Amino acid sequence: MTGLVRVEARRFRYRAAVRWLAVLAVVAALAVVAGAWSSTRPPSAQAVADAREQLAWAQEDWAENGEQYLEDCRAGEEEQRATDPEVDFGCDEMEPREESYLPYRTTFTDAAGSWISGASTVLLLLAFAAGVTFVTAEIGSGSLSTWLTFVPRRGRVYASKVAVAAAGVLVPTALALLVVVGGSWAGAAANGAVGDLDGRTWTDLGLTALRVLAVSGAAGAVGAALGFVTRSAAAALGVGVGWLVVVDSLIAGFLPGLQPWTLRVGVQAWVDDGYTAFVSVPCEPLDGVVQNGVCTAERLVTGVHGGLLLLGATVLLVVVGALVFRRRDVD
Fold it and tell me: Where are the alpha helices (DSSP H) in 142-169?
């Protein structure tokens, strides 16, 4: 088995399509770095001047009408608290402050996690595509059937290819994540927008990157499994993209209760260690009157939930691929 894995790893490494997908992963990471650089740049002198002009106007208005604004705010807050004691309109924070008018400036500490999360979507799609093309290219060229004459045990061939597809995508994904984190930090540092960076921040970023690596390996394995099932790169990619569009977007949009069980939400919850989804629930009584119809409520999808969902889907598809490959003629 070890020899088979070494052979498959060599094939994976030298396949042109896989190399191009690795290049695209790095390009996507560089695009995220460019966005990080742009968002951490200090505001222009004109933007600062415009903001201070608006602040001066707001402070003048507050000097004339501030007491009335506070009175109206507190009256409205008191009225709402009759039905919801937790309501807080933030009346004591209404007075215009400079930080509220100056253009918002992103810092590395605040946004690095979201930059990794944003890059993960493209990286997972590329990992999936790498797994697909790794298998379907050999099926289409006929080299897989030739290989089976040398290694007739299909279970070993299948396991080695899926394992290499899962492990092989980790290197370009890790490189792309390193570019995202290192490049965005360098850009933010050059712009003086690193923020309050400490050990906890680096730990959180490292854990997020590890979760992305884990799910990218799963994406590579699923891509390979679907390649064995469909025997066509176009069909496998169509199944993957079609599922995301039809099931995870359209159907889940009409049936919000399904959202916590979709792959899209599962990936987001796993990568971000939690995701807030909206589900349908019966409407609560308002002022003692029962409301008809369905209302929406927030539901926290934990990272464990997302991880177990992705693990179950990965195992299921890999098993289905193995069963199909063992019973189907490869010619």
Answer: 143-150, 154-168
Domain that residue 93 falls in: 45-101
**Whether the predicted model's global pTM rises above the 0.85 cut:** no
Q: Are residues 300 and 245 in the same domain?
A: yes
Centre a 10 Å sphere on the Cβ of residue 34 and count the other Cβ atoms it contains. Answer: 13
Three-class SS of residue 295?
Answer: strand
On whether both 184 and 56 belong to a single domain, the answer is no
Tell me the CA end-to-end span of the chain in Å, nearest whole number: 24
Mean pLDDT of the region 176-199: 88
State whether residue 81 is helix, strand or coil.
coil
Q: How far is CA 254 from CA 203, 242, 258, 279, 301, in A?
A: 38, 17, 9, 11, 19
Q: Say if residues 125 and 21 touch (Cβ distance below 8 Å).
A: no
Average pLDDT of every residue of the chain: 81
Question: Considering 75, 101, 127, which residue would you say is the last residue of a domain?
Answer: 101
Alpha-carbon gap, residue 266 to 180, rounded angstroms = 23
149 & 272 share domain: yes
Which DSSP symbol is given to 84?
-
**d(C-alpha 279, C-alpha 255), whole Å:** 8
Shared domain for 32 and 56, answered yes or no, is: no
Domain co-membership, 132 together with 231: yes
